[in-house]
Structure prediction request, 224 residues.
Amino acid sequence: RKEVEQDPGPFNVPEGATVAFNCTYSNSASQSFFWYRQDCRKEPKLLMSVYSSGNEDGRFTAQLNRASQYISLLIRDSKLSDSATYLCVVHSGYSTLTFGKGTMLLVSP
Amino acid sequence: EAQVTQNPRYLITVTGKKLTVTCSQNMNHEYMSWYRQDPGLGLRQIYYSMNVEVTDKGDVPEGYKVSRKEKRNFPLILESPSPNQTSLYFCASTANPTGAPYEQYFGPGTRLTVT
Prediction:
C-alpha cells in the first residue's frame, strides 16, 4: 500500500527559528520526491524538488535518504510568511503522485 | 498568464442533483487530474487523464465521472452527489508526468457542500 507519512504538527515556532519536517514513504520503487506548500484554503504549490544529493534553495534545504525511505525539509531563519502547510509528495510511477497529509507550520512574531 | 481555472469556486447543492465542475488549463499540458482534500485525509486523487480521450481511475473514483474531449478541459461530473462528497476539490495539470521536476499546477479549488 502506497503511503507517505509526515509529522502531524502543528509546529509553532518564533520568527528566526530553524524548523525541520520529516517524511517517510513506504514504496521503495518511488522515483521522485517533492515538497509542496499550501496556504490556508489555497491550492498547493511546488516549493522544491528533493534530490539524492540534497539541495538548497535560499533558507530551505531538502534531503533524501533512499535507504531509509526518508525525506526532510529544513527551514532556517523562519519568517512569518513561512506559515503554511507543507506537503511531502512522492512520485511512484507514471501517473501516481502520492501526497502526505501535510504538516502545519505557524511562525509567530 | 499560465493557469488552471475551475468553476464554480463554491457550490452548495442537494443530494442527487447532478453537477459538473469545470477545469481548464492554458498551458497545453497533456496530463490532468482531479483531487479531493478532506481534513485528516490529505489530497486524494479521483481521476486522471494522460491525454485527450484517455482517462483512468485514481484512488477514490466512486461517485465521479470525468471526460477529456479537448486537451485544455477536464470536467468532473457528479451524477448523483451525496453528502460524503462534500469536500474541497482541486484540478491539476502537468506537462510531463515522467519528467523532473514533476510540478503539478493546481487550480484555485472548488468548495462543494452537498446537503
About this structure: Chain B has a mean pLDDT of 93. DSSP finds no helices and eleven strands in chain B. Chain B touches chain A through 25 residues (CB under 8 Å). The first strand of chain B starts at residue 4 and ends at 7.
